[in-house]
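Milestone M4 deliverable, item 7.
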Amino acid sequence: MFYHRAVISYKGSNYFGWQDLGAGEEKPTLQAAIHQVLKKICKYQECGIAAASRTDAGVHAQGQVVKFALPIEIESEKLLQGMNSLLPDDIRVLKCEACQAGFNPNRDSNSKKYHYYFCVDRISNPVLHDIVAHVPSISEGQTASDNQTASDDQKTGTIDLEMMQQACEIFIGEHDFYSFAARDANIASTVRKISSCEILRAKFSSFGNEIYCMEIEGDGFLKHMVRYIVAALFEVGRGNLGLDDISEALKDRQQEKLSAKAKSCGLHLIEICY
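Output delivered:
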């Protein structure tokens, strides 16, 4: 077998996550789409693909790292060009190089970085709806006229970004994230180390909305962990949770989540470092 390491970017809106769902499953996945292209290049001989992160349905990536195991010898640059000519427009191979058989894109990584993009404007921009989460500050069932700060020309939401930033700082360090993750029997430990977590104003705001980004980097992430963290931050920003609630959830394993998961559309896998 011949092995290649590639960096892949994709828009996950049309896929039910990364992982192949198995034979006979009609729901499209990113792994299945890429595997199909690899098999075509290899004249339908057996080939393998493994990824550094199993992103959820609707989640996007700028820097997913994958390993290809191919039965034929092919230059990495030609493999990149061939795959991009066959892949759908929402998946692209950005880099490709030969690697050792023992390379494991998940276990060998030192850190992973995610961004969660969101806007708090009263009216969302439909152009951004599948890559930026709309997080209105007005509660469900409440109209703008019910909110003292709302008016016909109001645009910017009132989520407390400063409080969200203070909550971000609580997540930094090594913690047991059991309370902020989906149950997974295959995981031996729910302890993870977060090296950075902060709220920033996003750079691409020319579409008319004020867009923000929660940037988080750590040595690894549990299933749905980032989405549960982001959702808890939103509840802090709305005043429904306090900083003590975040601290307690990290200290004590809580069966009941502080909030539902945040929407998948705002989550982007940015970079995996080795």
